[in-house]
Amino acid sequence: MPEELQLKPHKLKVRKERIGKCITKYxxxxxxxxKIGSKPAALTGYVSDKxxxxxxxxxxxxxDRLSQFHPEVSRRCIVYWSDRGDWLLDPFSARLPRLLVxxxxxxxxxxxxxxxxxxxxxxxxxxxxxxxxxxxxxxxEKDRLRIQDENGTITETRYGDSRNLSFVPSNFIDLxxxxxxxxxxxxxxxxxxxxxxxxxxxxxxKPTYQEFLNGIKExxxxxxxxxxxxxYCVWNVQDFRKDGVYYxxxxxxxxxxxxxxxxxxxxxxxxxxxLSQMNFTRCDINxxxxxxxxxxxxxxxxxxxxxxxxxxxxxxxxxxxxxxPSR
Length: 327
Ligand SMILES: C[S@@+](CC[C@H](N)C(=O)[O-])C[C@H]1O[C@@H](n2cnc3c(N)ncnc32)[C@H](O)[C@@H]1O
Hints:
Layout: H1 9-26, E1 33-35, H2 41-44, E2 56-57, E3 60-61, H3 71-81, E4 87-90, H4 97-104, E5 108-113, H5 116-132, E6 136-141, E7 144-148, E8 154-159, E9 173-178, H6 209-226, E10 227-237, E11 240-242, E12 245-247, H7 249-260, E13 263-271, H8 280-286, E14 293-300, H9 315-323
Parallel strand pairs: 1-13, 4-5, 4-9, 5-8, 9-10
Antiparallel strand pairs: 2-3, 6-7, 7-8, 10-14, 11-12, 13-14
Helix pairs in contact: 3-4, 6-7
The structure holds S-adenosylmethionine (SAM).
């Protein structure tokens, strides 16, 4: 290599120090390809609950552990794209896998889901942590629970349709983080407001893919209203096949976000599944490849027009959201 292209020893040292600082700060290097190994022991209890009907997703049989969200993926996204004391919003919060990791890392969080079964499961789980985390219950209603741990971190779960997030002030959230529904692939519950439907309704009553995407678009439009102008939106998706048709779900999602006005900031690909879970026979017969990667799509809310919010933001409205027990 020509001498002028070689890194000088002192530059190498600076670079190594910077890499070292990154690892110390985040626990991983901020690269675009993540190999996700086993679950960190401290976080395993947050996701290993069995719930839901068995289903295939992404070509893998998920048994009774429907759509588990890997806590290490949550951890990386949360520590990299938010800071302690920030507010996180999850519009498809299900069994609260992202909220619980946010809480463990000192982020306030609010989640909403339309599955009654998942909501009640998460509700119970938050109450169970009461003694363990010295938690105070601030609000306890049928469709809403807000708790606060000894460090002052607030966690709130709500039951409802996230096409309406009017209970969150505009320009208030630092990080939106979600694992959205998968069209008609998975069954989450019988609620008519579910954006997709699995085995619960007949083929004729299921939404078309376009209708499903329209629902997602309504949710991300609401999320954008709640997001601060310098906030991030992190969306974890995987492409999928249904009845022999390949759905470019991540590509369609990027398109939706752009239409709503977000800026596409980054994309991470991660490998989650072990080879033993994949059905290679089906792949070989159809000349498919087995999907062993997922996408983390990161968007920014830059470019929000002044006055575009449907609810005006003021410091006092955010403060009352944080302080008021019955907003
Ligand atoms: C992929 S799942 C999330 C599961 C998550 N990965 C986990 O590990 O628990 C998508 C979630 O979106 C929820 N959902 C679907 N339509 C909704 C809507 N209109 N409003 C709120 N939540 C909705 C479903 O109930 C389901 O819990």
